[in-house]
Amino acid sequence: MRNPFVMDCGEFHVNYKQDMAIWKITRVRMRVFILLAVFAVFPMFASDYIIGLATLCGIAAIGAIGLNILTGFTGQISIGVGAFLGVGGYTSAILTAKLGLSFWIAMPTAGIVTAIVGGLFGLPSLRLKGLYLAIATLAAQVIILFVISRWDALTGGTAGMVLSRPEIGSFVFYSERSYYYLMFVVLVITALFTLNIFRSRVGRAFIAVRDRDVAAEVMGIDLFKYKVLAFIVSSFFVGIAGALLGHYTMVVSPELYSITVSIEYLAIILVGGLGSVFGSIYGAVFITLLPVVLRSGVEMMSGVFPDLSAVLIGMKEVVFGLVIILFLIYEPQGLAKIWKNIKDYFKLWPFSY
């Protein structure tokens, strides 16, 4: 048994299996299982409103993990994630509402279709970098939304489409609690898959492309292959998030996937931490709940300063921008780094070294 009064002096592994484990220490694995258990029983004690917010946070986290695979781990900038969410949402809507297919077929198909579209728009990544690649993904945002808005016969045009909640036999995921559990399972699978992919050759190639693409190419890594593969894998999870969001809100329309959504997802991975799976989750919770906190603050101030509250009610974008700037200045590695610093502090406490 570990002595709680003795400071850790490091980690000792006797085989590669221990060294390659996601959670290398027993007590860390116990914390993860306890945390999963807490989130599993959380809906039993929370109100529908709180559960709904948690569901939105989880769906945003799935999409943010997908974007982080591309931007945080592979270093390829994308500001078209809003449109890729739309591809996932509309694909699932068309398959379920128009073709009558099951959600359980439509959701993975939405991910696959979005992955194909993302791979096509990722083809210019061999020739383009940085700002130029960002403009190319912005073009994807514009083109996809144009097609969605104008193809009335398939997508319903600007009116959008109405969806239904998923079903298993006679059971419908209509309640907030049931849909939360659906989201929770998909989020856990997404996080585990992403954590594992970066222990593989493909994940290490992604990171090599991000850190120094010329050196990676010299070592034999096919830049074009892995850049396009990053777009494909990233877009798959974004498409899954789009399908989940569409069936949760039960509506898809072009204005739900605007450039503002793309900026919000960039804010999620910047605030949460680039290149961090759990940072994507932290950032999704922070950015999703930020408007709720601001709205509550404005409502509290409306009784005291009615004129001031009317001005502040439209300040969400300003606050988003300010939050991103502050994180880039004071903690570029985001909430994931802040949490790591807190853990390191208590690991060494009461010592300062």
Structural class: mainly alpha
Largest sheet: 2 strands, antiparallel
Provide a count of the helices.
16
Instruction: Please tell me what the overall shape is.
Output: globular
CATH architectural name: Orthogonal Bundle
- Count up the domains: 1
Percent helix: over 70%
Oligomeric state, counting identical vs distinct chains: single chain
Number of strands: 4
Strand order of the largest sheet: 1-4
CATH domain topology: ABC transporter involved in vitamin B12 uptake, BtuC
Low-confidence stretches are none
End-to-end CA span = 25 Å
Quick one: CATH class? Mainly Alpha
Order of helices and strands: HHHHHHHEEEHHHHEHHHHH
SSE layout and pairings?
Elements: H1 16-19, H2 26-41, H3 48-73, H4 81-98, H5 103-122, H6 130-150, H7 152-155, E1 161-162, E2 167-168, E3 171-172, H8 176-197, H9 201-211, H10 213-218, H11 223-249, E4 251-252, H12 259-272, H13 277-302, H14 306-312, H15 316-330, H16 334-348
Antiparallel strand pairs: 1-4, 2-3
Helix pairs in contact: 3-8, 3-11, 3-12, 3-13, 4-5, 4-6, 4-11, 5-11, 9-11, 12-13, 12-15, 13-14, 13-16
